[in-house]
Amino acid sequence: MMKDWIKTGSPWIWMTAGAVALSVLAVFFVLWMTAARGLTHFWPKAVLETTFRDGEQTVRVIGELRDREEVSVRRLQEAGFKIDSTEPFVERALIKLGNRDVTGQDFRWFPLPLLGEFRYPSDILTVERHEWGNFYGHLKAVKEGDRIVAEGPQAWPELQARVARAQTLFRDILRIEKYDIGDVNYRLEQLRLRERKLQLQGKLDDAAKADIERQREALQAQFGQLQEALQRLRADIARDVLVAEIADGQLVDVPLAKVADVYQANAMNVGQKIGHYARKFLEFLTDDPREANTEGGIFPAIFGTVAMVLVMSVIVTPFGIMAAVYMREYAKQGPLIRIIRISVNNLAGVPSIVYGVFGLGFFVYVLGGSIDRLFYPEALPAPTFGTPGLLWASLTLAILTLPVVIVATEEGLARVPRSVREGSLALGATKAETLLRTVLPMASPAMMTGLILAVARAAGEVAPLMLVGVVKLAPALPIDGYPPFIHLDRKFMHLGFHIYDVGFQSPNVEAARPLVYATALLLVILIMVLNLAAIKLRNHLREKYRGLESV
């Protein structure tokens, strides 16, 4: 009976179905774990206040409860904690203390038996700062210079108003530094390059020198005016200070110029927490990073990832399709073509870091250096294209993913019935017309499949990008308002490298951990969106040419 059942093939069907089910469950588990650990990062955490019995002393603790775990009592006793317990294991709590600039530590583990009762006073502030991370304390007063303008119950509404004012001034300062002064610096650099170019060409006469000097003086005068405006804004933003009492009883002044956000998490209702969550998530998507990439947003990394994938797709698609068309439709099938196909298949298994080394050596040093000598001699010795950048990263990944596109396109061309080709030729079409108007449109779904696989791999690569263009923090996006508007020579940020940098290079690992999960989830979502767009286009093409396939 069992043998007959095995002969029917049912065990293999059930085994295959079980393997698929397990794979789907594994994917959903990864997504669920990443989302659960990453998306909760933006929810306003309650701030507790308790006491910690450290030997004969009892100290106050203020912070956010971030994690709990069981640990052996013996291990805690060896670490110097005086714990009297008959149980072999007790729980300990990881509390984010903040105030790193005052206490020197951001996170600390505390054995729960040595902690007192947890309380959640409504007046405790959570202050997000541009530097030194979070600050926690009881709000005591708001000062303007050395004068106290509000204290007690009136301090919180006054603080909210002055924080809003400080944030407006901070945005004005950032706009002047990043855009206005950046524009002046850009034009000064263009003048310098123009002067150098004329000098190399032997055309730098007195009239040209006078014209360049006149423009330079005007720009320097504009730069001086912007510096004066910056000084006024910095003096204005520095006037307001909040005064808070921290855990050890000190009264600490926090300048509002350093405050990115402030809120009382313990006093928020559900609606306020949802609004706070939405605002923080939007900031995460649209702001620049700060605090060594462990705070702020990741917009430059999102932009850089999408830009690199689009440029790579524009490069790899035509080359992959042309190579596949030649090998399938034009080349004489023989040992040489078989060797080429084997080589293409083997290239798909080469480690990605090897492509990165090749890209650095050939694209950056050889090709980029030659471009600089031919077209940008006035900028030398500072490289323009002879340094890692978006173009070289895209070319490197195009070569890395080229075998995938070639193989998928060849498979699609092979599935086009011979009768379709013969019918087209019989009706008087040339071979080129048959290929362009009949064969390639029918094979387009397979081409899109190759592009989907190429995008999925390229978007997640990190190792080669570290050599050919990706940096920890890019000062400018590859697209801006200056000619030629799309700057393929610039370095860029990438979500995959951002995850690596925050997860493994961060000086504050515990603070960076939730951001790693949030960025990883965003990278998965971005790849899914790009793939879904390509899949939708592939399905449209498949439906459009379904009738031809049945011919």
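Above is the first protein from milestone M3; the second protein from the same milestone is given next.
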Amino acid sequence: MATIEEREQHGGVRQMVLFRLAQEQFALEINKVKEIVRLPATTKLPKSPAYIAGIANLRGNVLPIIDTRQRLQLDMAEHTESSRILVTEVSGHLLGLQVDSVLTVKTVDADHFKSSPPVSQNIDKDYISGVIQEDDDSSLTLILNVEEVASISIEQGEKKEAVATAAIEQKETEEDSNSEGEQFVTFAMGREDYAFEVETVREIMRVTTITDIPNAPSHVKGLITVRDSVMPVFDLRALLSLQTEISSENERILIVETCGFTLGLIVDRVKEVRRFPAELIQIPPDSDDVQELKGIVKVDNGKKLIMILNQDKLLAENESASVRQWMDDEGVNSMTAERKQGELGQGNGDEEVQLVTFNVGEEEYGIHITKIQEINRLDEITHLPRSPHFVEGVTNLRGNVIPVLNVRKLFGLPEKENDDRTRIIIVDIGGRKTGLCVDQVDEVLRLSKSNIEPPPAIVSSSEANRFMEGVCKLDKGKRMVILLDVEQILDKQELESFQSIDTPDDVKDSEVEIVGKKQPSKKKRLSKPKTVVDK
């Protein structure tokens, strides 16, 4: 008697994976199923087709997942312990199909395969490639047409993937034509404000567990691990000879390149990412007493000073050599070198990009830091009559009235009350300085370009492809950040309606509404916003 494998080769039998959706039984050829996994954590994609449940991490690969019930227009239901993902491949693209349960793998004789009837259980016949009808069973098993369910124009998707990849590379080499002066990260130490040039700050992170090291220099608080790199953490207060204060939840660690190595600096509170015109920056006198300063910024007509620190002069030469020697003795440099060598061996040592990440709803997004002019705390917003639904209103930015877009409304998410974590990210949209209202700003980070993948092909053919540059994979794929192209966040119609909105001086109505207040428009003056990054 011929084996199943021999009968398969001659078309006598086919092995099928049987699964259930709603009350129906479906099948898929086993050679189309790469694996079967439990439901993973899923990242939703804004403005993607409703049947796309999101994207997930599959051992470091970005896996788009289709809500198969939604795709086949079946009744929706909650996931259960039996829910599974069938990982399949369509024209070289991995894809996950969400099903209620997997029943069995069954060998089916060829004469049990029938053509699909014109209507199969009220399911679009295009999604069904045939049926299985057993001799002793009057019920039908529907054979899923996975190519049609995926509904991907592969040629179009691959072209868009190529365009997206090129765009990611191009954006990092382009000069930001809308920049106004140099960009800095500003932070507070006590009552004084300081800044570093943004290029020197690799990341901004919350204070995490710091490992104490015996016999370390007095400035060194200990060691931390940041994305597989071991580095020392310094108390910036001690370096600047400032009075020690009690730690608070607002403290942050700035990861800075200095003195030939990377280190963390603990600061009291990060305030903003902001550009300063060159004319506001005064070069300090050439003196040993101020060697740690690169410049002094005069803001608010000189009423306030921000001191720009020279990261390479924070440590005296003998201190720098001492710390470097201590790092060598403790094996810190060798640990980091080994990890970096491992990254290079894995192809992750290529060019890096710098992003600001933030949350809208449950998902995390990122924007290239070169596209961000400032990050501000939410202040009073004046509502504009007859403005597009996604325009929250306008606010004052140092005398300039700028519109504020509600990203939740743009992405079709439920509305949420603003709170003390709400932030305004200042970007340029259509040549106009614009604020993006987001739930909270997380961090500034660097990552390798190799960790940014173009949008999956199934997304490339949807509306989300317009403003979605790619998917950033962090923490070995466990964390996914959706990279946005803010210049494309509005479609053509939205952009036209956005560009036509009036400023408060042009409003003709008798009153405008401030969120939570109402005042006459002619008497209303917008207060100056507080610009901060910290949560």
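Note on the second protein: The chain has three domains: 4-151, 182-345, 352-520.
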